[in-house]
Amino acid sequence: MRIYLDVCCLQRPFDDQRQARIHLEAEAVKLLLARVEAGEFLWVSSEAVDDEVLQNPDAEHALKAMLLVTHAALKIAVEEKEIRRAAELERLGFTGFDALHLASAESGGVQVFLTTDDKILKRAARLATQLAVRVVNPLPWLQEIETL
Predict the structure, then answer these.
(1) pLDDT band at 84; cut points 50, 70, 90
(2) pLDDT tens for residues 36-74?
(3) Own/partner pairs, 129-138, CB within 8 angstroms, 24+ separation
(4) How many domains is the chain built from?
(5) pLDDT digits (tens, 9 = 90+) for 14-37
(6) How far is the C-alpha of 60 from the C-alpha of 113, rounded, in Å?
(7) Nearest one of 102, 1, 125 to 49, comparing CA atoms
(8) Buried b (16+ CB within 10 A) or exposed e, 16-30
(9) Cβ atoms within 10 Å of 88's Cβ, excluding its own
(10) What is the 3-state secondary structure (H, E, C) of 57-102?
């Protein structure tokens, strides 16, 4: 199964872990990455991930996230097709990098787009029929697939 982790997911293990939700989501992301390494999932990333990570003002967190991204099996280049689709997604209300991430995930044939960003999750739930990828939070998604 192809998965895409947005930058919110990649940064979650480096966020302040004192809040229960953040801690649990960080553990879910770590488990996903371990399962990627074990070959259970194929991690698709993109140039948009690299670009957004490099904009992080915390250089240490950016470096850690970039090291994680090296484990992705496939990196989608942001080209004309992705830019056109991102523009369509922006008209639906997704913004900037979020639209580019979704467009890249669709181009990469991803089944599941993982994010911890509530704004993206809510908008994607409302617009699910207009997306070619399922958008979910990693914690409930892992719980869901464990029960299958």
Answers:
(1) very high
(2) 999 999 999 999 999 999 999 999 999 999 999 999 999
(3) 130/92, 131/102, 131/106, 132/106, 133/4, 133/102, 133/105, 133/106, 135/102, 136/112, 137/25, 138/5, 138/9, 138/25, 138/28, 138/29, 138/32, 138/114
(4) 1
(5) 999 999 999 999 999 999 999 999
(6) 25
(7) 102
(8) eeeeeeeeebbbbbe
(9) 13
(10) CCHHHHHHHHHHHCCCCEEECCCHHHHHHHHHHHHCCCCHHHHHHH
Residue in this structure with the two tokens 């999932």, named with its chain if needed: 41
Give yes or no for residue 146 having a pLDDT over 90.
no
Closest CA to 76 of 97, 45, 52: 45
Structural domain harbouring 25 = 2-146
| CATH number, domain with residue 128 | 3.40.50.1010
Alpha-carbon span 65 to 97, nearest angstrom:
16
Distances (CA, A) of 39 to 12, 17, 43, 87, 89: 22, 28, 9, 33, 31
